[in-house]
Amino acid sequence: MLQKICGFLSTLLMVALLALAAVLIVPVILGYTELAVLTGSMQPTIPVGSLIYVKEVDPATLEPGDVITYRLEGDTMVTHRVIETNPTEGYLITQGDANEDPDGEITFDRIVGKMDFHLPYLGYISMNIRTKNGIFAICGTLIVIILLTFVPEIFAPDSPEDEQEQEKKQKKIFRKKQEN
Question: Is the pLDDT of residue 176 over 80?
Fold first, then answer.
């Protein structure tokens, strides 16, 4: 019974780790940029803590209603909805769904890409997995999987063959003691 429980738990943990790895790695391989949503400017469409997947596009193809990510300053990025485009002059105007005012003109050279999809709450994991505590959590989970694999063997009763071998050895030792 212990073996079945430990096997189930280790399989469950391994599947969870593989699913997390797939969600974080496969889209990057497919050319997406992953970003965690830190503010509520796109709520309720995109909740805080979501992981968004942005793909590079030709800015001239963007239309009102598209959700895009653009660079504000340095490494700061903003993800808002396009409300107006002006491809001839090379800019568009965006606005967060929860914001009352538009952002102003965003030039095409600042556009990172168009958001294709998002996964709620995974942004928290994405942000924290790269920290010292996140690495410890992953390592700890792997250790638990290893322990769950070997614990049943440690506590499993000896097989009947092993018990018979033990008895034979004990009898031989007993006979030698009697002979001496």
Answer: no
